[in-house]
Amino acid sequence: MPRRDHSTEEHVLSEVSAGAPGGPDRITHGEADGDEWQADNRENGNINEDGSRGNLLAQVEIMEGATIEELVDRVEIKLDEPCSNLPVLRAQELKIIGRCVTFLGETTVEGQRLLLHYEGVVAMITKDTVVLLQVHRYTKEDFAKYQERLHAEKKAHKKDAEGGRYRDGDQHESGALLGSAEMMHFSPTGGSNSNGEVHHDAQGFDCNVLVSQDARENPEESEPEQPLTRQNRLLGTRTMGPVPYMTFSRRRIHDVVFGQDPPWSFYSIFQDPSRKFFDMQCLRMFVRRYLVHTSQRNNPRNMNLRPFIEWRCSCKEIDDELLLSIAKQELTYLIKTEREIAKAAERSLISRRNLLNAYESSHRLFRSTGILFLTRIPAQTFSLAVLEMFVALLLLAFSVYSFTTAPSLVIYGYVREYTFSVTFASIISLVASGMTASHSLRMRLPLTFSIYTALRLVATTLAIALDTMTLVMIGGAVTYSRILGYLYGVAQESAELCYYYLLHNCTGFGETCAQNDSSVLCMQLCPSNRNNSCTQLLTSTFTRIFIPFIVISMVLIVLFLIDHFLHYHLLKTSRLLMARI
């Protein structure tokens, strides 16, 4: 899954922690959040840069130089005024505390991997775990039915509401809350047991459990279903919920998406004595949410702590000392958690980089390329360099051959004018191919601008320029005007052209010479055959010599352009790899 930008709320719950295998899982938006963060679209990472808006924050970085106690002591937490000196909690995972999420939880049963769907409200995230409140567990079939019913409810509510926005008194709730009251008591199977009840008797436990094979339920049995026992709950063989809380390993959750947030009436805390412990967890959860978003300057409505808690938890007159004490405790815990997340990420980064640096290719020739060998770029570059070298040698050999075998009369002098340029271009192309081959055997992550990189870039660019120059020059050498000008010079300076006429029994170039023709190329004093023109003979000779130069030069230009493209591909791939590690 592609990795999301770190400035967005769409952050990965199960993002790779230290030593976590595989890539990050995804989290995408379901419906909008019901609190003020989402209402102003600030939870998506937009930071209010106006210092007069939101809570006044001192830009205090959570650095290793200051202890947690020192940071917390500097903070002035006020219930009805903006907090000050809040340290910036930069861990983006913390932003989704208080949001409902749905994911696949992985459990190992008798050595077999079992995946079940879970839905709950994120109470806390650490470097290794995520804690959910009010958790529902679904089998694959039940979850599909549950999603179908939610989709149908949303469509019905959108039609009734003509826009899908609702107001609950003075509280603005988003479309995510539509139909959520039924959701809290809805069994997607239409009855997980024989009487259609959903089981609510489970306590909090870790979803990653190991059980024996003989304790598992046979899904093909047609006999009446048995009551949900604790063993079945731990096995994960039935749809169940809500469970007060569950703890999940971040390494063992997948396909994370935002879910259906509970109705605000669900968070009416401290009204039922039997829910005292659960209500306290809800209170702590929203205190965490407030501290995280306020520290990140994501409080667009400028709400203070007490109004926010009273609004979100539907609870008036919370004890001041209790709220301040919880805020201090949770701030301490959040700072500690963020430091642990940062340290784990740093350790994971160092570990992965060390692992990449320690990797050696099984191919002896590319042993120095390390992990880059797996991208096939070194092998592709080396193969291209070998091909470049072969074509450059071919150009050089043909240049030498043409120079040494050209006829001595007329042709030799014309070929000699272009031999040096062709030979020089072929030598530079040969050197450039050698630089490419050398670089292909030494490229390695992290990619640096080494001497091999510089030599390759300079040599290939120079080779492209010289081969292009050769192509233009040789292309002009086979034109009628260039050949005609050369022959005029030869006719005026020596008798070499006359000897050529006598040898090939022809006269003139581009014209038919009469007996008394005074043209320079007809050479009246030369006793040659004036009935035949030398045009076709000279043109075919020059073309036969120079056309291979043109073709080979074009091939070299294309190869060195591909060389540059592979170099660019190397830079792009190395950046992607370094970003992932």
Overview of the molecule:
With 581 residues, the protein is α/β, with parallel strands linked by helices. It has two domains: 27-217 and 226-351, no CATH class; 364-580, no CATH class. 46% of the residues lie in helices and 11% in strands. The protein is built from 14 helices and eleven strands. It has helices at residues 36-39, 68-74, 140-161, 180-183, 230-235, 276-295, 305-313, 320-358, 377-405, 411-440, 451-477, 480-493, 496-504, 535-580, and strands at 27-28, 60-61, 87-88, 100-109, 112-125, 129-138, 166-168, 171-173, 205-206, 240-249, 253-258.
Largest sheet: 7 strands, mixed
- The oligomeric status of these chains comes to single chain
Weakly predicted, low-confidence segments? 1-34, 38-63, 164-226
Question: How many individual β-strands?
Answer: 11
Q: Note the total helix count.
A: 14
Structural class: alpha/beta
Overall pLDDT metric: 75
What's the number of domains?
2
Order of helices and strands: EHEHEEEEHEEHEHEEHHHHHHHHH
Query: Radius of gyration, Cα only, in angstroms?
Result: 39 Å
In percent, how helical is the residue content? 40-55%
Q: How large is the share of residues in beta strands?
A: 5-15%
Supply the key terms.
two-stranded parallel ribbon, 46% helix, 581 residues, transmembrane, transmembrane helix, alpha/beta, rod-shaped, 2 domains
